[in-house]
Write a structure and sequence with these properties.
The protein has six helices and twelve strands. By secondary structure, it is of the alpha/beta class. α5 runs parallel beside α6. The chain binds zinc ion.
């Protein structure tokens, strides 16, 4: 009898282990890393170099590669330390600060009308009127619709010239919105579907400095936000743990409600 119960218990465990999550509820919000991955005009692009690829003399397949590139390429984390001395470096960010309820603020119509749009406090307040106060530990994502430009450097950045930071045109957060989120709400992290949390024309990177100063991690070039509801998802963002880093490649995904 004991054996039967044990057998049934272990079968039950197997069943649970085989289906830990509902795959249909997962949204991968990460762009693949390759030679084509868009990078900041002054950053070193991502590169994958072949070391081995093919059948070995012993008759088995073997492949391996070296990779290199800026921390700030493709879908990535900006650690608070990026723009705030003494704040968390990439490896110091506690894991519970990169996981939280997803809040998607849709500014796509305004961003379409104005390429340099900055998310305003009123956009956050409008979201709150419809969906309630921002939940504690929220991961606040700006959805500008910029994902449709991914792969087209000129449309995505506003310029396709290497080293050209004078003509950057894409949406970001405003200084007021960043200050509001830091002072008036308790959020875990912020993200954007554009190259930077500061809008393209920014010269002082004040939004990076405000969030960094408050130890709020930033996620940039976040993909597939259009598949998320305004509220109800849970975001998991897992950066590579680079010791002393100012950022890192990021795997970010959502679990839908
Ligand atoms: Zn960055």
């Amino acid at each position: 009898m004991k054996k039967v119960i044990l057998l049934l218990l272990s079968l039950r465990l197997l069943e649970v282990e085989a289906y830990p999550v509902d795959a249909k509820k997962l949204v991968d919000m990460t762009y693949s890393f390759s030679d084509e991955t868009l990078h900041w005009p002054t950053a070193q692009p991502f590169k994958l170099e072949k070391v081995n690829e093919g059948m070995t003399p012993q008759g088995y397949w073997y492949s391996s590669y070296n990779y290199s590139g800026s921390e700030h390429v493709g879908t990535h984390l900006d650690a608070p330390f990026h723009f705030a001395q003494g704040r968390w470096t990439t490896d110091q960010i506690p894991l519970d600060r990169t996981i939280g309820p997803g809040v998607v603020i849709d500014v796509s119509r305004k961003a379409q009308a104005s390429r340099g749009y900055q998310l305003q406090v009123v956009d956050i307040r409008t979201w709150e009127r419809r969906h309630g106060k921002l939940p504690g530990g929220a991961i606040v994502l700006m959805y500008s619709g910029w994902g449709k430009f991914w792969g087209d450097r000129k449309s995505y950045f506003g310029t396709d010239q290497e080293g050209d930071t004078a003509n950057l045109r894409f949406p970001g957060f405003s200084k007021d919105a960043a200050e509001f989120l830091v002072k008036e709400r308790k959020i875990n992290a912020v993200g954007t579907d554009t190259p930077s949390i500061d809008h393209g024309p920014s010269r002082d990177f004040i939004v990076h400095r405000i969030f960094g100063g408050a130890n709020i991690p930033i996620f940039e070039n976040v993909a597939s936000m259009d598949r998320l509801p305004p509220k109800g998802s849970t975001i998991y963002a897992v950066p590579m743990k680079i010791k002393g880093g100012s950022g890192a490649p990021l795997r970010i995904f959502a679990v839908l409600p």
